[in-house]
């Protein structure tokens, strides 16, 4: 059996100019990066009616795998196969997971975006630009303090760390500026991974270059001794940061193995940020196609909720339909089966684990979005197990469709495409689940009770005081971004299925004033991952002819 990278290399790709031409883009709107990648400078105001936005989300992730990105790609290919004009809009992969445990994020099997190696590695340099802009601000903070600290920034209350697009646990907590007075004032700090940077979130939520710079200027980097906020604009850093991001803000155009256009742009962390591709790329796709397939990170309790309550709220987008990806294997894990035993038929475990899927269905329906379930097929699935899932969700008025896009490409998702198009062509009643006017703590309570089915939240006294201060300072109208484990509806990653009666602890809150949301850190969430005992990097090689081995 061919590996993903071998399948990708065997494909005959179309010149990117031809892909752009199919979208009706003039040459002046396309900036080629080689033969198979391009940046787009097109305005989203093309005069045509916007397409229908389709969100692909999933049940809570498990080590068994769900295949959300693969399903998104297969669905887009299938929509095109059925004669519809469709565009895919995805996030860019981070280098950290590529060399760690997860691997890349370009799909798999015969449902991939290409060129796979380029997209998974440096691509068009967007992440490097974001890293540089973030670290420029960090450098200007320390430089300001070194040259007299005219703003009165308290070194003990600087919130802005540095970032690196790599998994490196050694950098989570550091002491910087050692070596004498010429090297600055020693203080504690640390590094986050680039995808957790507020600059990444800002790039993905900005409307245009002017909005990008305005948002960068609103970044709160720390406070003075009397707790007055100090911003990037106060440091005169916003202009230079925008300069570094002038090309990164342009969406990237590539294609699937079947030649379907794909805009891959931005990649915010789905815990500490909103986990969706850029607003600019999504709007551009909607202006060019009748159907746009996008996805949100992790399960629907994180990714879909933030897609609706943060991205769609800020950008004024409405979601026409949602696909929830599930697998027989993952439902068995939610039903208590160990990973080593997943290949064995276990109808009872599938039925037990289906409670996780049912809750995600109910949650997405709360937003007024119609739902279909994609059962991502594995070779060990039995007909009885698949039928059981279909019968269980049918009781809730939802269709579950087996999909074989991994093995068959778009041909394996045609039935899903027809169902999704039918849902998307029906008027949606999309809505967010809380009002802007609610206080911040009440918004957090609403997400915890309505989406996680918790009895409530347990913020620390310091969190309660901080939220009250932000409400009073005018930040109360912002949406909230709940940062919790992706593996459970609770803050405990071991509680699988559909737990109830739990309480969500909030140990810390962070103001992302530039991105336009307030982060609630629930339990133990890391913003700088570490490498596993045997990282994917161990198996990577470069052959004499330049071919890469081991990337997946």
What value does the average pLDDT take? 95
> How many strands, which pairing sense, and closed or not: the largest β-sheet?
12 strands, mixed
Helical residue percent band: 25-40%
| Basic shape | globular
Tally of strands: 26
What portion of the residues fall into strands of 2 or more residues? 15-25%
Radius of gyration, CA atoms, in whole angstroms: 23 Å
What is the overall number of helices? 18
SS content category: alpha/beta
Low-confidence stretches: none
Oligomer: single chain
Q: Kindly report how far apart the N and C termini lie.
A: 14 Å
Walk me through the topology.
Blueprint: H1 4-10, H2 16-22, E1 30-32, E2 38-40, E3 52-58, H3 68-81, E4 86-90, H4 95-99, E5 107-108, E6 111-114, H5 116-120, H6 126-146, E7 153-158, E8 162-164, E9 174-176, E10 187-189, E11 191-193, H7 198-205, H8 209-217, E12 220-224, E13 229-231, H9 238-244, E14 252-256, E15 261-264, H10 279-288, E16 291-295, H11 300-315, E17 321-326, H12 328-334, H13 347-366, E18 371-376, H14 383-394, E19 400-403, H15 405-408, H16 414-424, H17 440-450, E20 456-459, H18 461-475, E21 480-483, E22 503-506, E23 508-512, E24 517-521, E25 541-542, E26 548-549
What does this structure look like?
Helix 6 (126-146) crosses helix 7 and helix 6 packs antiparallel against helix 9 (238-244). This protein is α/β, with parallel strands linked by helices and 552 residues long. A hairpin with a 5-residue loop joins strand 1 and strand 2. The strands form seven sheets. Strands 1, 2, 3, 4, 5, 6, 14, 15, 16, 17, 18 and 19 form a twelve-stranded mixed sheet that branches. Belongs to the formate--tetrahydrofolate ligase family. It is an enzyme of class 6 (ligase). It comes from Sphingomonas arantia.
């Amino acid at each position: 059996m061919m590996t993903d990278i071998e399948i990708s290399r065997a494909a005959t790709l179309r010149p990117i100019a031809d892909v752009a031409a199919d979208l009706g883009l003039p040459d002046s709107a396309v900036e080629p990066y080689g033969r198979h990648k391009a940046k787009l400078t097109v305005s989203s105001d093309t005069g045509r009616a916007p397409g229908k936005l389709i969100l692909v989300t999933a049940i809570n992730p498990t080590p068994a795998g769900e295949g959300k990105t693969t399903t998104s790609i297969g669905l887009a290919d299938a929509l095109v196969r059925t004669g519809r004009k469709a565009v895919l809009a995805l996030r860019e992969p981070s280098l950290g997971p590529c060399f760690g445990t997860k691997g890349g994020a370009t799909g798999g099997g015969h449902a991939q975006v290409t060129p796979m190696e380029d997209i998974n590695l440096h691509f068009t340099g967007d992440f490097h630009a974001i890293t540089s802009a973030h670290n420029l601000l960090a450098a200007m903070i320390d430089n300001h303090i070194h040259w007299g600290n005219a703003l009165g920034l308290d070194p003990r209350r600087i919130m802005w760390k540095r970032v690196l697009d790599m998994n490196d646990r050694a950098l989570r907590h550091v002491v910087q500026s050692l070596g004498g007075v010429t090297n600055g004032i020693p203080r504690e700090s640390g590094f986050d991974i680039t995808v957790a940077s507020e600059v990444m979130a800002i790039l993905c939520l900005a409307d245009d270059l002017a909005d990008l710079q305005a948002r960068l200027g609103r970044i709160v980097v720390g406070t003075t001794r009397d707790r007055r906020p100090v911003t990037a604009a106060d440091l005169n850093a916003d202009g230079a940061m925008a300069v570094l991001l002038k090309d990164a803000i342009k969406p990237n155009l590539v294609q699937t193995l079947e030649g379907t256009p794909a805009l891959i742009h931005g990649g915010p962390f789905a815990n500490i940020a909103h986990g969706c591709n850029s607003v600019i790329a999504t709007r551009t796709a909607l202006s060019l196609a009748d159907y746009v397939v996008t996805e949100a990170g992790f399960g629907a309790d994180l990714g879909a909720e933030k897609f609706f309550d943060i991205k769609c709220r800020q950008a004024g987008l409405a979601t026409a339909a949602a696909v929830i990806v599930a697998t027989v294997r993952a439902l068995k894990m939610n039903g208590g089966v160990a990973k080593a035993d997943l290949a064995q038929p276990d109808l009872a475990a599938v039925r037990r684990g289906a409670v996780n899927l049912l809750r995600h269905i109910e949650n997405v329906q709360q937003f007024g979005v119609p739902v279909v379930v994609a059962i991502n097929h594995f070779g060990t699935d039995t007909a009885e197990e698949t039928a059981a899932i279909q019968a269980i969700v049918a009781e809730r008025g939802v269709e579950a469709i087996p999909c074989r896009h991994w093995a068959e490409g778009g041909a394996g998702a045609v039935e899903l495409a027809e169902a999704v198009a039918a849902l998307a062509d029906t008027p949606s009643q999309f809505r967010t689940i809380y009002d802007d006017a609610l206080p911040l703590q009440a918004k957090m309570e609403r997400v915890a009770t309505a989406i996680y089915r918790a009895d409530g939240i347990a913020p620390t006294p310091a969190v309660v005081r901080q939220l009250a201060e932000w409400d009073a300072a005018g930040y109360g109208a912002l949406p909230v971004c709940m940062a919790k484990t992706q593996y459970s509806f609770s803050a405990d990653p071991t509680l699988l299925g559909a737990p109830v009666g739990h309480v969500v602890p909030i140990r810390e809150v962070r103001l992302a004033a530039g991105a336009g949301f307030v982060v609630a850190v629930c339990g133990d969430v890391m913003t700088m991952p570490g490498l596993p005992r045997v990282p994917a990097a161990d198996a990577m090689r470069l052959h004499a002819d330049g071919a890469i081995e081991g990337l997946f």
